[in-house]
Amino acid sequence: MRSTNLSTTSTLNSGTGKGTLSTTSNSGAAGKRTSAPNQTAQSEAEKFLTLGISHHESGDLSRSAFYFERSAKIEGGCVVGMCMWGMALREGWGVRKDQKRGFEWISRAASRAGDLMATSNGKTRNEAELKAIRSELKLSVYELGKCFCYGWGVKQDRQMALEYFELAAKLGDADAQAEAGALLAAGKGCKKDLKKAAMYYRMAEAQGYDTVGLSWIHKDKYDPVSVGKTKGGR
């Protein structure tokens, strides 16, 4: 049998319900330990996720929320479905706003993604499957970081937020890299560290993140690579 992994990238503006969601479908051979019932359930969850994204993009937030909830719950749900249902609850996208429940679902998504990543060790997975798992993990961890950063459904804890942002940043999430940079630059939830903040901002910039007004991140004292190049050119 074959399974389909949906990796979702969110470019939604928090609180507005506007923006775009893109899905990439990656097919790969199912692991030997995966049973047929689980494959079917996961496939159904992903179908509902795709429908939810489609309705969200068309502006039908009520139907979008309905499908995100189904994707999160049917036969255990799927990671991105859980995360999107949590975000819908947190932001009030087509459903009564409930930030506490939203946080709980995003937490479940991050926990499930972490488990999938952990159990990948020692298992034979193709690159597409591993990429999908990493994508699911960085999405859910980043959104969890936002909950802690802004106190959405949980007590505000910027130290915890930074930990989640840094984890997502290391997985390659540009928004998480920028969020980590902002906290480090301001010394919120941590000791102020402009050198490390600049590093994260440059990582985000390399992926297309707008760093207008942040020219300081390229100053020699914050960019050891730049210093090395300057010395090498002398």
Automatic annotation (TrEMBL):
One of its GO terms (biological process) is negative regulation of G2/M transition of mitotic cell cycle. Pfam families: Sel1. GO terms for cellular component: cell division site. Residues 1-42 are annotated as: Disordered. Residues 1-28 have a biased composition (Low complexity). This is HCP-like protein. It comes from Meira miltonrushii. The lineage of its organism: Eukaryota, Fungi, Dikarya, Basidiomycota, Ustilaginomycotina.
